Amino acid sequence: MAEARQVPEVAAPAVAQGNAAYAWPTHPTYMGTDVQRIDGPDKVTGRAKYSYDIQRPNMLYGRIVRSPHPRARVVAIDLTMARQAPGVKAALAVVEPNAILMFQGEEVAAVAAATEEQARDAARLVKVQYEVLPPLTSVEQAMSPDAPKVFPDGNVREGAAEETGDLAAGFKAAAHVVEQTYNTQVQTHVSLETHGCVCEWDGDKLTAWVSTQAVHGTREGFAQALKIPQANVRVITQYMGGGFGSKFAPDAQGIICANLAKQAGAPVHLMLDRKEEHLATGNRPSAYAKIRAGVSADGMLTAFDAQTWGTGGAGVGAGFPLPYIYQFPNRRRQHKDVYINAGGARAMRAPGHPQGCFITEVLMDELADLVKLDPVDFRMKNLPPDAPDARWRAYFPIAAKLFGWDKRHPTGDATPGPIKHGFGCSANRWGGGGRGSHAHCEILPDGGVIMRCGTQDIGTGTRTLVSIVTAETLGLPIDAVNTEIGDSLYPFSGGSGGSTTAASVTPAIRVTAVKALDALKAKVAPKLGVPPADLVASDGRLHARNDRAKGMTWKEACRTLGAEPIAVDGEWQPGLSASGTSGVQMAEVEVDTETGVSKVTRLVCVQDCGLIVDKLTAESQVIGGVLFGVNYALFEDRILDRNTGQMVNPNMEWYLIGGPSDVPEITAHLVDQPERGVIGLGEPPAVATAAAIANAIANATGVRLRSLPMTPDKVLAALEQQRAGGTR
Amino acid sequence: MKVTITVNGTPYTRDVEPRTLLAYFLREHCGLTGTHVGCDTSSCGCCVAVLDGQTAVKTCTMFAVQADGHEILTVEGLAAGGALHPIQQAFSDQHGLHCGYCTPGMMLTTVALLKHTPAPTEAQIREGLAGNLCRCTGYNNIVKAVQQAADVLRQPAAATK
Ligand code: FES
Ligand code: FES
Predict the structure, then answer these.
(1) What domain count does chain B have?
(2) What is the side-by-side order of every strand in the sheet holding A666-672?
(3) pTM of the model
(4) ipTM of the complex
(5) Is residue A172 part of a domain?
(6) For a designed S-S bond to A438, which of A254, A523, A571, B35 qualifies (C-beta 3.0 to 4.6 A apart)?
(7) If contacts are CB pairs under 8 Å, which of residues 636-655 in chain A contact chain B?
(8) Which residues from chain A sit within 8 angstroms of residue B91, using beta carbons?
């Protein structure tokens, strides 16, 4: 079975080394300011068409038949009745008899019919005979010695032990030792627009409107699976309703949709429903860690010994970084990937980091309590050295000041009454960084400007960033730029994941726009009698650097082109973007010790943002990331029935996402570091929130929760245990 | 079954199956795809439209036949004569959207909210939108957008809207 398509953290320099030819402007007009999204009006009027909204002439609706069983052998598939059902134009088996299905929701067959209802009816008429096989439904079961051997290479894959320093000496130096087990749950992506596409064939050429984070990667995926040339595939994603790491390829449903469209000779619309989405389109793996850790009497970390495991479902790994950020000089870790019969993991907003962060940061607070140090002071003592991408030593004090950390009381709110308040903190890091984007710019004789790049806007504001950088470079208003993205016909750009998009795309746009402007300057210079190098573009004019009057309007300049527009290609170059980021978060909670309900009342996030392109979208991206963390902390949990292995909450009614009344106003403090160039922002803010909330709950109640999500039943159980004689 | 539903002022008469949900009536029978579906189970609020100018309804949980003879307002009907409705302007101005998939439902819920609570507090806005989920924004800017819209709509010049 395939590994999850993880977007790796990019290892690029932490500081932009400068790129004289294309350097970012030192006194920008738009960059770093609040620029409204250029697609705002389209999105508020319903004009923005998502893949879900695409309607083509004679379009059919596709529907997939999926395995209801977490593990089964397909005995037979009979499509006869489905084919005869009203409106049906195509029906196909996705797997052959004898195929072994490894998770609930695995694709078995598919139909396409004239209406959505007819497709659902026909799907019910597909007769599949299964031989149900006993599934692995939990990590505990999969790891037990008498578990059935379900996966060919074993249910458990043990990694090599990592060891640094002298563990025995580390524990010897410890004045206190914590020995505990921590765990995080499986989280699904829950993009509000589900996965899916519309596929339409014209002869042997395929056009696919796909809800994807990678138009080029998805083109490649279609070509490979359908065994057709990449040149015959066009993938379009004008607007998409979120992806969060789960949408990089056509996936099974894309290939099925293309095959149905081919068979029917008509376009097919195939979007998944919420249940399919939870079951089959990826998730964040669970994580478990059994840890022994030591701290010296003066509050220095001395030793860390961990056994870790987790499940990414059927055949997919569950790795995560541990220990996270803080320096344990002597440490050992042994990790196991555990496979169960459930949908496979995929990259999800900062893959691995929220798990590693939660486990380490909760442990850090336990150690701090033992040496009676304030959690911030304790962290400051044990942070790695300061670096451009590791500035926690600066950020903890900034966050503490913004938050009012000095008002924190010691663990356990002594206020009478059932409502307890508490503060918690934690830190995050992430890689990100740029590479390999291309763009094409045209300057037209009538003054028009087109910038094309085969990236896509997954909701973060990429389209707006392209316009900002182009307008900034050409000295034009933002609405003078026609930005065209989201189409595999445009120059290659990578997938939007791993917080790489802004750092990949904006340098490519800068380089391309500068080249286009240089070409225009070369045409205009002789007419103005100014050497091209002395010309600058600003405020809609092209003029001599030291004499604004010696120049012409943008339109006049473009008119000199005659019939031949300027058309130039450019690509990402080093020196304009960087990798790595750090941040700190602080949370305040209010816990009702009678009901167990925790409410987050304040959240402060201090985040390194490198060179900010659009302050409005950057800030909002950070705030949205923090909300992701709140949901992870308190609400989200993919729950499998321990007997049947079926998901018991495959909807949005019992798989919980916080609404506006469940979260407070989130304060984002962006630390602008223009010398670093553009860095990524999507993942890092989502990392630290759950740990900060967990630590705040412990500070409020005096009992420690070591398991996510921190639901009321867990809070009450921990309080009960304390009453019964302590939590250890 | 034959139904006539007035959507954004235009009557649509269509022959539908009894089980056809209002969301799919709007999307597939009227071609008005601004009404999105995120969950199909009344949980997310992507599909909200306004019924008879008064009530925010989740159109994934209402049959088209139940709306027979009624008036429905969707995102496509918000802008009067090309100018953005103050709520649309506010969501755009305040950046109350990222991917924008939840936005039509958010705005239509806001229409009904502000009709009944023209000067909402922040808490009332958050409660009023509690049935609308957003996976992207963190809600800060959505709250600001509703505040801006409420301020604009309370001014006398906007009273006709
Ligand atoms: S689609 Fe109607 S509430 Fe989610
Ligand atoms: S903006 Fe994406 S779901 Fe709200």
Answers:
(1) 2
(2) A419-430, A581-592, A598-610, A666-672
(3) 0.96
(4) 0.96
(5) no
(6) A571
(7) 651-653
(8) 40, 43-44
